[in-house]
Amino acid sequence: MRNRLPPPPARILDIGGGTGVHAEWLAAAGYHVDLVDIVPEHVRAARELANRIDGRVSAHVGDARSLQAGDGSVDACLLLGPLYHLPEQSDRARALAEAVRVTRREGMVCASAISRDAWPLYAPRDGVGLPTDRVAAIEATLASGRGDPVGSLPDAYSHRPSELAGELDQAGLVDVHVLGVEGPGWILFGSDLAEGRVDDLLDAAIRTARLFDGHPDMTAASAHLLAFGRRP
Ligand SMILES: C[S@@+](CC[C@H](N)C(=O)[O-])C[C@H]1O[C@@H](n2cnc3c(N)ncnc32)[C@H](O)[C@@H]1O
Asked: How many structural domains are present in the chain?
C-alpha cells in the first residue's frame, strides 16, 4: 500500500481506522491522517494516539456511509475494514461513493475486503478437520459472501476479487486493481507446524507472496484482498 500512496505530507482519510493502527505509521512517515470510526471506544484510543503524535492525526466518530469531510478534501482514502461489516451491497456502494466524493481528482482510494474463496483454507491453517456442519457453513458463505463460517463475525461480508474490483468501478474509480494481502503462505501460521520456525516460514511466505504478485488467478488464496482505484 505504502508505495501506491501519494507522497507525504499528503492528507489521508482513514475510514474505519479503528484504534489508529495505520494512522500511527502513516503519521510517523509524515502524512496528515484524519481517522473516522463508527465505534466510540476505537476513536477514544485513536485520540490518545493523536495526542502523542503532535498534531498529525485527528480522530472522530462517523459512519463510512455518510462522511463529514468535504468534497475532494483529501489526497487519499483508506477503507480498511468497513466493507467487511457491510453485508448489503447498497451500503457498500454508499461507503465507496463517499470515499470517492471526499477524495480529490487523481487521488487514490484503497479498500480492503475479506477473501471469500479463502474460507476453506482456515481448516488446514488451524490444523483441524472439516466436520460436515463446518463444510455446510463454508459452502453457504462461498455461495452468498455472507457470514463467518470459522469465526465470530456473523454480519461479515466477503468478496471475490472480481466483485471487489466491480464495486470500485461502479463507484467511478479508474485503474482499479486488486491484490492479495498475505499470499497463499498465510495458512502456515495457525498450527503447531509453525512452532520454532516462524522466522523461516515468514520469509518463505513473503517471498511466495511476491512471486504471485501480478498473477491475478492466485489473488483469492489470500485471506484478505486490497483494492486500489484512482479518482479520475
Ligand atoms: C477489521 S477493523 C479494521 C481496523 C483497521 N482499519 C485495520 O486495518 O486494522 C474494521 C473497523 O471498521 C470499523 N467500521 C465498521 N463499520 C464501519 C462503518 N460503517 N463506518 C466506519 N467504521 C466502521 C470498525 O469499528 C473497525 O474499527
From this structure: 1
| Residue nearest to ligand 1 atom 13, measured at CA | 16
What does pTM read for this prediction? 0.94
The fraction of the chain above a pLDDT of 70, given in percent, is 99
| Position 135 in a domain | yes
Q: Is residue 108 part of a domain?
A: yes
Q: How many CB atoms lie within 10 A of CB 10?
A: 18
The residue whose C-alpha atom lies closest to atom 8 belonging to ligand 1 is 80
What mean pLDDT comes out for the span 155-169? 97
Residue 105 maps to which CATH number? 3.40.50
Residue carrying C-alpha cell 451491497: 89
Most ligand 1 atoms within 8 A of CB, residue of 15, 38, 78 to mutate? 38
**Looking at the domain assignment, is residue 27 inside a domain?**
no
Domain range holding 148? 2-16+64-230
Q: Is residue 116 part of a domain?
A: yes
| Closest residue by Cα to residue 9 from 43, 32, 38 | 32
Cα 86 from Cα 186, distance rounded (Å)? 25
Selection from 38, 42, 86, 94 nearest residue 65 by Cα: 94
Cα angle 33, 111, 157 (rounded to 5 degrees) comes to 125
